[in-house]
Amino acid sequence: MNKNTVLISGASIAGPALAYWLHRHGFAVTVVERAPGIRPGGHAVDIRGVAKDVCARMGIMGQITRDRVHEEGFAWVDADGRRTSEMPASLAGGEGLVAEYEILRGDLADILYDVTRADVEYRFGDRITALADGADGVKVEFRSGRTEVYDLVVGADGVHSGVRALAFGPEEQFIRQLGAYTAYYTMPAQAGMDPHWFLMHGVPGGRCAGIRPENDRTAKAMLTFRSAGHAVDPRDSDAQKRLLAQVYGGDGWRVPAMLDAMWDAPDFYFDVVGQVHMPHWTSGRVALLGDAGYCASPISGLGTSLSLVGAYVLAGELAAAGGDHGPAYAAYEEQMRGYVTQCQKLPPGGVNGMLPMSAGAIRLRDVSTRIMIRRPFSRLLRLQAGKADAISLKAY
Ligand SMILES: Cc1cc2nc3c(=O)[nH]c(=O)nc-3n(C[C@H](O)[C@H](O)[C@H](O)COP(=O)(O)OP(=O)(O)OC[C@H]3O[C@@H](n4cnc5c(N)ncnc54)[C@H](O)[C@@H]3O)c2cc1C
User: Residue 44 CA: which ligand 1 atom is closest?
Assistant: First the structure.
Protein backbone atom coordinates (compact mmCIF):
# COMPACT_ATOMS: atom_id res chain seq x y z
CA MET A 1 0.00 0.00 0.00
CA ASN A 2 1.43 3.37 -1.03
CA LYS A 3 1.16 6.12 1.57
CA ASN A 4 2.40 9.01 -0.54
CA THR A 5 0.46 12.23 -0.06
CA VAL A 6 -0.78 14.17 -3.08
CA LEU A 7 -2.33 17.63 -3.08
CA ILE A 8 -4.50 18.42 -6.12
CA SER A 9 -5.52 22.00 -6.90
CA GLY A 10 -8.90 22.25 -8.68
CA ALA A 11 -12.14 20.26 -8.30
CA SER A 12 -13.86 20.37 -11.69
CA ILE A 13 -13.16 17.40 -14.01
CA ALA A 14 -9.40 16.67 -14.02
CA GLY A 15 -8.92 17.06 -10.24
CA PRO A 16 -11.63 14.67 -9.00
CA ALA A 17 -10.81 12.16 -11.80
CA LEU A 18 -7.15 12.10 -10.68
CA ALA A 19 -8.24 11.87 -7.03
CA TYR A 20 -10.32 8.80 -7.91
CA TRP A 21 -7.42 6.95 -9.53
CA LEU A 22 -4.81 7.98 -6.97
CA HIS A 23 -7.01 6.80 -4.11
CA ARG A 24 -7.60 3.52 -5.92
CA HIS A 25 -3.82 3.07 -6.23
CA GLY A 26 -3.34 3.70 -2.50
CA PHE A 27 -2.28 7.37 -2.33
CA ALA A 28 -3.61 9.75 0.33
CA VAL A 29 -5.31 12.57 -1.58
CA THR A 30 -6.36 16.13 -0.68
CA VAL A 31 -8.14 18.40 -3.19
CA VAL A 32 -8.20 22.17 -2.70
CA GLU A 33 -10.73 24.22 -4.73
CA ARG A 34 -10.96 27.99 -4.62
CA ALA A 35 -14.76 28.04 -5.14
CA PRO A 36 -17.01 27.42 -2.10
CA GLY A 37 -18.19 24.08 -3.56
CA ILE A 38 -18.19 22.09 -6.79
CA ARG A 39 -18.82 24.81 -9.38
CA PRO A 40 -22.10 24.51 -11.27
CA GLY A 41 -22.43 25.68 -14.83
CA GLY A 42 -21.18 25.17 -18.33
CA HIS A 43 -22.74 23.62 -21.40
CA ALA A 44 -22.49 20.04 -22.54
CA VAL A 45 -18.96 18.60 -22.71
CA ASP A 46 -18.07 15.57 -24.81
CA ILE A 47 -16.73 12.21 -23.65
CA ARG A 48 -15.08 10.74 -26.70
CA GLY A 49 -12.97 7.78 -27.77
CA VAL A 50 -10.59 6.41 -25.14
CA ALA A 51 -12.13 8.65 -22.45
CA LYS A 52 -15.22 6.41 -22.60
CA ASP A 53 -12.97 3.44 -21.62
CA VAL A 54 -11.58 5.47 -18.71
CA CYS A 55 -15.11 6.24 -17.48
CA ALA A 56 -16.08 2.58 -17.88
CA ARG A 57 -13.03 1.56 -15.80
CA MET A 58 -14.16 4.07 -13.16
CA GLY A 59 -17.61 2.47 -13.15
CA ILE A 60 -19.39 5.75 -13.92
CA MET A 61 -20.73 5.04 -17.43
CA GLY A 62 -24.12 4.20 -15.89
CA GLN A 63 -24.39 7.65 -14.25
CA ILE A 64 -23.12 9.35 -17.42
CA THR A 65 -25.64 7.49 -19.59
CA ARG A 66 -28.41 8.41 -17.14
CA ASP A 67 -27.49 12.12 -17.04
CA ARG A 68 -26.27 12.78 -20.59
CA VAL A 69 -28.10 15.32 -22.72
CA HIS A 70 -30.45 13.81 -25.29
CA GLU A 71 -30.05 16.11 -28.23
CA GLU A 72 -31.11 15.52 -31.78
CA GLY A 73 -28.40 17.87 -32.99
CA PHE A 74 -27.63 21.55 -33.44
CA ALA A 75 -29.02 24.01 -35.94
CA TRP A 76 -28.13 27.51 -37.11
CA VAL A 77 -31.02 29.98 -37.12
CA ASP A 78 -31.47 33.46 -38.58
CA ALA A 79 -32.60 36.57 -36.71
CA ASP A 80 -36.25 35.43 -37.03
CA GLY A 81 -35.50 31.96 -35.67
CA ARG A 82 -35.78 30.16 -39.05
CA ARG A 83 -33.35 27.24 -39.43
CA THR A 84 -30.72 27.85 -42.09
CA SER A 85 -28.74 24.60 -41.63
CA GLU A 86 -28.51 21.75 -39.16
CA MET A 87 -26.22 18.98 -37.96
CA PRO A 88 -28.08 15.89 -36.70
CA ALA A 89 -26.46 14.03 -33.78
CA SER A 90 -26.91 10.68 -35.50
CA LEU A 91 -24.27 11.49 -38.15
CA ALA A 92 -20.73 10.11 -37.91
CA GLY A 93 -21.54 7.48 -35.29
CA GLY A 94 -21.31 9.85 -32.33
CA GLU A 95 -17.76 10.95 -33.21
CA GLY A 96 -18.67 13.90 -35.42
CA LEU A 97 -19.28 17.48 -34.30
CA VAL A 98 -22.01 16.14 -32.01
CA ALA A 99 -20.73 13.38 -29.71
CA GLU A 100 -22.64 10.28 -28.60
CA TYR A 101 -21.87 11.08 -24.94
CA GLU A 102 -22.51 14.74 -24.15
CA ILE A 103 -23.16 15.70 -20.55
CA LEU A 104 -23.50 19.07 -18.84
CA ARG A 105 -20.13 19.93 -17.33
CA GLY A 106 -21.69 20.57 -13.92
CA ASP A 107 -23.40 17.15 -13.96
CA LEU A 108 -20.12 15.39 -14.78
CA ALA A 109 -18.31 17.31 -12.02
CA ASP A 110 -21.04 16.21 -9.57
CA ILE A 111 -20.67 12.56 -10.62
CA LEU A 112 -16.88 12.67 -10.13
CA TYR A 113 -17.26 14.38 -6.75
CA ASP A 114 -19.84 11.81 -5.63
CA VAL A 115 -17.55 8.85 -6.41
CA THR A 116 -14.59 10.38 -4.54
CA ARG A 117 -15.96 12.43 -1.63
CA ALA A 118 -15.93 9.53 0.88
CA ASP A 119 -12.25 8.70 0.25
CA VAL A 120 -10.66 12.05 -0.55
CA GLU A 121 -10.36 15.18 1.57
CA TYR A 122 -11.94 18.12 -0.26
CA ARG A 123 -11.23 21.64 0.96
CA PHE A 124 -13.40 24.28 -0.66
CA GLY A 125 -12.88 28.03 -0.50
CA ASP A 126 -9.11 27.84 -0.26
CA ARG A 127 -6.15 27.95 -2.64
CA ILE A 128 -2.40 27.55 -2.77
CA THR A 129 -0.42 30.79 -2.39
CA ALA A 130 3.18 29.46 -2.29
CA LEU A 131 5.06 26.29 -3.23
CA ALA A 132 8.60 25.36 -2.17
CA ASP A 133 9.79 22.16 -3.86
CA GLY A 134 12.39 20.34 -1.74
CA ALA A 135 14.16 17.00 -1.45
CA ASP A 136 11.60 15.64 1.03
CA GLY A 137 8.41 17.13 -0.35
CA VAL A 138 6.66 20.30 -1.40
CA LYS A 139 6.00 22.88 1.30
CA VAL A 140 2.64 24.45 0.51
CA GLU A 141 1.17 27.65 1.89
CA PHE A 142 -2.56 28.24 1.60
CA ARG A 143 -4.65 31.39 1.44
CA SER A 144 -6.33 30.24 4.69
CA GLY A 145 -2.98 30.50 6.49
CA ARG A 146 -2.20 26.77 6.72
CA THR A 147 1.26 25.45 5.83
CA GLU A 148 1.67 21.76 4.96
CA VAL A 149 4.11 19.41 3.24
CA TYR A 150 3.02 16.98 0.51
CA ASP A 151 5.00 14.40 -1.47
CA LEU A 152 3.49 15.66 -4.72
CA VAL A 153 1.37 18.58 -5.94
CA VAL A 154 -0.79 18.50 -9.09
CA GLY A 155 -2.33 21.56 -10.72
CA ALA A 156 -5.73 20.62 -12.17
CA ASP A 157 -6.91 24.19 -11.82
CA GLY A 158 -7.78 25.13 -15.37
CA VAL A 159 -6.55 27.55 -18.02
CA HIS A 160 -5.57 30.19 -15.44
CA SER A 161 -3.89 27.62 -13.18
CA GLY A 162 -2.51 28.96 -9.92
CA VAL A 163 -0.10 26.02 -9.58
CA ARG A 164 1.26 26.66 -13.08
CA ALA A 165 1.86 30.33 -12.25
CA LEU A 166 3.77 29.38 -9.08
CA ALA A 167 5.82 26.48 -10.48
CA PHE A 168 6.27 27.36 -14.17
CA GLY A 169 5.78 31.12 -14.50
CA PRO A 170 3.28 33.70 -15.80
CA GLU A 171 0.45 32.41 -17.99
CA GLU A 172 1.15 34.74 -20.94
CA GLN A 173 3.94 32.45 -22.12
CA PHE A 174 1.67 29.35 -22.19
CA ILE A 175 -1.83 30.51 -23.21
CA ARG A 176 -2.33 30.78 -26.97
CA GLN A 177 -5.42 32.94 -27.52
CA LEU A 178 -7.58 31.92 -30.48
CA GLY A 179 -9.11 35.37 -30.87
CA ALA A 180 -12.47 34.83 -29.15
CA TYR A 181 -14.23 34.91 -25.77
CA THR A 182 -17.08 32.76 -24.55
CA ALA A 183 -19.70 32.94 -21.80
CA TYR A 184 -22.00 30.21 -20.48
CA TYR A 185 -24.87 30.54 -18.00
CA THR A 186 -28.32 29.28 -17.09
CA MET A 187 -31.38 31.24 -18.28
CA PRO A 188 -35.14 30.68 -18.07
CA ALA A 189 -36.59 28.24 -20.62
CA GLN A 190 -37.79 29.94 -23.80
CA ALA A 191 -41.35 29.43 -24.97
CA GLY A 192 -41.72 27.94 -28.44
CA MET A 193 -38.26 26.37 -28.64
CA ASP A 194 -37.80 22.74 -29.71
CA PRO A 195 -36.46 21.10 -26.52
CA HIS A 196 -34.35 18.59 -28.47
CA TRP A 197 -32.13 20.93 -30.47
CA PHE A 198 -29.26 23.25 -29.59
CA LEU A 199 -29.95 26.41 -31.62
CA MET A 200 -27.29 28.93 -32.58
CA HIS A 201 -27.58 32.31 -34.23
CA GLY A 202 -24.57 33.75 -36.06
CA VAL A 203 -24.21 37.51 -36.51
CA PRO A 204 -21.80 39.30 -38.90
CA GLY A 205 -18.82 40.60 -36.95
CA GLY A 206 -17.96 37.16 -35.57
CA ARG A 207 -20.66 36.77 -32.92
CA CYS A 208 -22.67 33.69 -32.03
CA ALA A 209 -25.50 33.23 -29.52
CA GLY A 210 -26.70 29.73 -28.63
CA ILE A 211 -29.49 28.30 -26.47
CA ARG A 212 -29.64 24.68 -25.37
CA PRO A 213 -32.99 23.82 -23.70
CA GLU A 214 -32.46 21.89 -20.46
CA ASN A 215 -35.93 21.15 -19.06
CA ASP A 216 -39.26 23.01 -18.92
CA ARG A 217 -37.80 25.62 -16.54
CA THR A 218 -34.24 26.34 -17.68
CA ALA A 219 -31.95 26.52 -20.70
CA LYS A 220 -28.18 26.97 -21.12
CA ALA A 221 -27.07 30.18 -22.82
CA MET A 222 -23.84 30.55 -24.76
CA LEU A 223 -22.37 33.80 -26.11
CA THR A 224 -19.15 33.47 -28.12
CA PHE A 225 -17.59 36.39 -29.98
CA ARG A 226 -14.40 37.21 -31.81
CA SER A 227 -12.04 39.70 -30.30
CA ALA A 228 -8.36 40.26 -30.81
CA GLY A 229 -8.09 41.17 -27.14
CA HIS A 230 -10.60 42.95 -24.93
CA ALA A 231 -8.64 43.50 -21.76
CA VAL A 232 -11.19 42.21 -19.28
CA ASP A 233 -10.30 40.99 -15.82
CA PRO A 234 -10.78 37.17 -15.68
CA ARG A 235 -12.17 37.53 -12.13
CA ASP A 236 -14.48 40.55 -12.65
CA SER A 237 -17.81 39.08 -13.79
CA ASP A 238 -19.59 42.47 -13.68
CA ALA A 239 -17.08 43.90 -16.16
CA GLN A 240 -17.52 40.78 -18.34
CA LYS A 241 -21.32 41.18 -18.34
CA ARG A 242 -21.03 44.86 -19.26
CA LEU A 243 -18.76 43.88 -22.14
CA LEU A 244 -21.27 41.27 -23.40
CA ALA A 245 -24.14 43.77 -23.17
CA GLN A 246 -22.10 46.18 -25.27
CA VAL A 247 -20.95 43.58 -27.84
CA TYR A 248 -24.41 41.97 -28.32
CA GLY A 249 -26.61 45.06 -27.83
CA GLY A 250 -28.92 45.38 -30.87
CA ASP A 251 -28.64 41.74 -32.02
CA GLY A 252 -31.83 39.86 -32.93
CA TRP A 253 -33.29 36.37 -32.36
CA ARG A 254 -33.47 35.64 -28.61
CA VAL A 255 -30.37 37.65 -27.74
CA PRO A 256 -32.26 40.37 -25.78
CA ALA A 257 -33.76 37.67 -23.49
CA MET A 258 -30.29 36.12 -23.11
CA LEU A 259 -28.78 39.45 -22.08
CA ASP A 260 -31.63 40.10 -19.62
CA ALA A 261 -31.05 36.72 -17.96
CA MET A 262 -27.26 37.17 -17.77
CA TRP A 263 -27.24 39.69 -14.90
CA ASP A 264 -28.78 37.35 -12.32
CA ALA A 265 -27.47 34.04 -13.68
CA PRO A 266 -26.41 31.78 -10.78
CA ASP A 267 -23.54 30.16 -12.70
CA PHE A 268 -22.14 32.83 -15.05
CA TYR A 269 -18.84 31.68 -16.60
CA PHE A 270 -16.69 33.75 -18.96
CA ASP A 271 -13.27 33.01 -20.41
CA VAL A 272 -10.94 33.50 -23.30
CA VAL A 273 -11.09 30.82 -26.01
CA GLY A 274 -7.55 29.57 -26.03
CA GLN A 275 -5.16 26.68 -25.76
CA VAL A 276 -2.34 25.95 -23.34
CA HIS A 277 0.93 24.84 -24.91
CA MET A 278 3.89 23.87 -22.71
CA PRO A 279 7.17 22.11 -23.43
CA HIS A 280 6.85 20.14 -20.14
CA TRP A 281 3.97 19.48 -17.76
CA THR A 282 6.11 18.54 -14.78
CA SER A 283 8.77 20.27 -12.73
CA GLY A 284 10.34 18.62 -9.68
CA ARG A 285 7.47 17.21 -7.59
CA VAL A 286 4.83 19.35 -9.31
CA ALA A 287 2.72 18.21 -12.30
CA LEU A 288 -0.03 19.79 -14.39
CA LEU A 289 -3.14 17.99 -15.60
CA GLY A 290 -6.04 18.85 -17.92
CA ASP A 291 -6.64 22.45 -19.03
CA ALA A 292 -3.87 23.69 -16.70
CA GLY A 293 -1.25 21.89 -18.80
CA TYR A 294 -2.81 21.29 -22.20
CA CYS A 295 -6.16 23.00 -22.70
CA ALA A 296 -7.40 22.25 -26.21
CA SER A 297 -10.22 24.89 -26.13
CA PRO A 298 -14.00 24.32 -26.27
CA ILE A 299 -13.78 24.38 -30.09
CA SER A 300 -11.82 21.10 -30.04
CA GLY A 301 -14.59 19.21 -28.26
CA LEU A 302 -11.83 17.15 -26.65
CA GLY A 303 -10.78 19.04 -23.49
CA THR A 304 -12.80 16.92 -21.07
CA SER A 305 -11.68 13.66 -22.70
CA LEU A 306 -8.06 14.83 -22.47
CA SER A 307 -8.35 15.55 -18.76
CA LEU A 308 -10.05 12.20 -17.98
CA VAL A 309 -7.40 10.26 -19.90
CA GLY A 310 -4.57 12.39 -18.44
CA ALA A 311 -5.81 11.63 -14.91
CA TYR A 312 -5.82 7.89 -15.62
CA VAL A 313 -2.30 7.96 -17.10
CA LEU A 314 -0.74 10.22 -14.43
CA ALA A 315 -2.14 8.17 -11.54
CA GLY A 316 -1.28 4.89 -13.28
CA GLU A 317 2.33 5.89 -13.91
CA LEU A 318 2.73 7.09 -10.30
CA ALA A 319 1.41 3.75 -9.08
CA ALA A 320 3.61 1.78 -11.50
CA ALA A 321 6.68 3.67 -10.22
CA GLY A 322 5.73 3.09 -6.58
CA GLY A 323 5.21 6.83 -6.08
CA ASP A 324 8.65 7.76 -7.45
CA HIS A 325 7.74 10.95 -9.29
CA GLY A 326 10.89 11.08 -11.49
CA PRO A 327 10.18 8.07 -13.72
CA ALA A 328 6.42 8.45 -13.31
CA TYR A 329 6.34 12.04 -14.55
CA ALA A 330 8.66 11.18 -17.47
CA ALA A 331 6.34 8.34 -18.50
CA TYR A 332 3.26 10.61 -18.12
CA GLU A 333 4.80 13.20 -20.44
CA GLU A 334 5.84 10.54 -22.93
CA GLN A 335 2.44 8.78 -22.92
CA MET A 336 0.40 11.97 -23.27
CA ARG A 337 2.41 14.12 -25.69
CA GLY A 338 1.21 12.60 -28.99
CA TYR A 339 -2.40 12.38 -27.80
CA VAL A 340 -2.40 16.02 -26.65
CA THR A 341 -0.85 17.14 -29.95
CA GLN A 342 -3.61 15.35 -31.88
CA CYS A 343 -6.43 16.69 -29.69
CA GLN A 344 -5.17 20.28 -29.93
CA LYS A 345 -5.57 20.21 -33.73
CA LEU A 346 -8.80 22.14 -34.25
CA PRO A 347 -11.64 20.86 -36.49
CA PRO A 348 -11.79 22.30 -40.02
CA GLY A 349 -12.50 26.04 -39.97
CA GLY A 350 -11.53 26.47 -36.31
CA VAL A 351 -12.64 29.83 -34.88
CA ASN A 352 -13.37 31.16 -38.40
CA GLY A 353 -15.80 28.30 -39.08
CA MET A 354 -17.76 28.95 -35.90
CA LEU A 355 -17.64 32.74 -36.00
CA PRO A 356 -17.67 34.01 -39.60
CA MET A 357 -17.16 37.77 -39.97
CA SER A 358 -19.55 38.64 -42.84
CA ALA A 359 -23.13 37.82 -43.88
CA GLY A 360 -21.69 36.14 -47.01
CA ALA A 361 -19.39 33.94 -44.91
CA ILE A 362 -22.34 32.95 -42.67
CA ARG A 363 -24.31 31.90 -45.78
CA LEU A 364 -21.28 29.94 -47.00
CA ARG A 365 -21.06 28.15 -43.63
CA ASP A 366 -24.73 27.16 -43.95
CA VAL A 367 -24.18 25.86 -47.48
CA SER A 368 -21.13 23.84 -46.46
CA THR A 369 -22.99 22.43 -43.41
CA ARG A 370 -25.82 21.29 -45.68
CA ILE A 371 -23.32 19.64 -48.04
CA MET A 372 -21.31 18.01 -45.25
CA ILE A 373 -24.25 16.13 -43.79
CA ARG A 374 -24.93 14.43 -47.11
CA ARG A 375 -23.38 11.08 -47.92
CA PRO A 376 -20.61 10.59 -49.03
CA PHE A 377 -19.31 13.72 -47.27
CA SER A 378 -20.66 12.82 -43.83
CA ARG A 379 -17.76 10.40 -43.25
CA LEU A 380 -15.47 13.48 -43.18
CA LEU A 381 -17.23 14.34 -39.94
CA ARG A 382 -15.61 11.33 -38.28
CA LEU A 383 -12.37 13.34 -38.16
CA GLN A 384 -12.72 13.63 -34.39
CA ALA A 385 -12.72 9.85 -33.99
CA GLY A 386 -9.04 9.33 -34.83
CA LYS A 387 -7.90 12.07 -32.44
CA ALA A 388 -10.00 10.87 -29.49
CA ASP A 389 -8.50 7.37 -29.88
CA ALA A 390 -4.88 8.49 -30.40
CA ILE A 391 -3.57 6.76 -27.25
CA SER A 392 -3.54 3.14 -26.01
CA LEU A 393 -4.42 2.78 -22.36
CA LYS A 394 -2.07 0.62 -20.28
CA ALA A 395 -3.67 -1.69 -17.71
CA TYR A 396 -1.65 -0.37 -14.70
C1 LIG B 1 -17.72 26.65 -14.49
C2 LIG B 1 -17.09 26.03 -15.72
C3 LIG B 1 -17.86 25.88 -16.88
C4 LIG B 1 -17.28 25.31 -18.02
N5 LIG B 1 -18.07 25.16 -19.14
C6 LIG B 1 -17.55 24.57 -20.23
C7 LIG B 1 -18.34 24.36 -21.41
O8 LIG B 1 -19.52 24.68 -21.44
N9 LIG B 1 -17.76 23.81 -22.51
C10 LIG B 1 -16.45 23.42 -22.50
O11 LIG B 1 -15.96 22.91 -23.51
N12 LIG B 1 -15.68 23.60 -21.41
C13 LIG B 1 -16.18 24.15 -20.28
N14 LIG B 1 -15.39 24.33 -19.17
C15 LIG B 1 -13.99 23.86 -19.23
C16 LIG B 1 -13.94 22.33 -19.11
O17 LIG B 1 -14.42 21.92 -17.85
C18 LIG B 1 -12.51 21.88 -19.30
O19 LIG B 1 -12.05 22.27 -20.59
C20 LIG B 1 -12.25 20.38 -19.23
O21 LIG B 1 -13.31 19.64 -18.71
C22 LIG B 1 -10.99 20.10 -18.40
O23 LIG B 1 -11.29 20.42 -17.06
P24 LIG B 1 -10.25 20.84 -15.96
O25 LIG B 1 -10.73 20.18 -14.70
O26 LIG B 1 -8.86 20.60 -16.41
O27 LIG B 1 -10.40 22.44 -15.83
P28 LIG B 1 -11.64 23.33 -15.41
O29 LIG B 1 -12.92 22.66 -15.74
O30 LIG B 1 -11.42 24.68 -15.94
O31 LIG B 1 -11.57 23.36 -13.80
C32 LIG B 1 -10.60 24.03 -13.06
C33 LIG B 1 -11.07 24.07 -11.61
O34 LIG B 1 -10.02 24.67 -10.81
C35 LIG B 1 -10.56 25.68 -9.98
N36 LIG B 1 -9.51 26.67 -9.73
C37 LIG B 1 -9.08 27.65 -10.56
N38 LIG B 1 -8.05 28.31 -10.00
C39 LIG B 1 -7.83 27.72 -8.79
C40 LIG B 1 -6.87 27.94 -7.76
N41 LIG B 1 -5.95 28.90 -7.85
N42 LIG B 1 -6.91 27.14 -6.67
C43 LIG B 1 -7.86 26.14 -6.55
N44 LIG B 1 -8.79 25.91 -7.50
C45 LIG B 1 -8.76 26.68 -8.62
C46 LIG B 1 -11.75 26.20 -10.75
O47 LIG B 1 -12.69 26.85 -9.89
C48 LIG B 1 -12.31 24.91 -11.37
O49 LIG B 1 -13.18 24.26 -10.48
C50 LIG B 1 -15.91 24.90 -18.00
C51 LIG B 1 -15.16 25.05 -16.84
C52 LIG B 1 -15.73 25.60 -15.70
C53 LIG B 1 -14.89 25.75 -14.44
Answer: 8
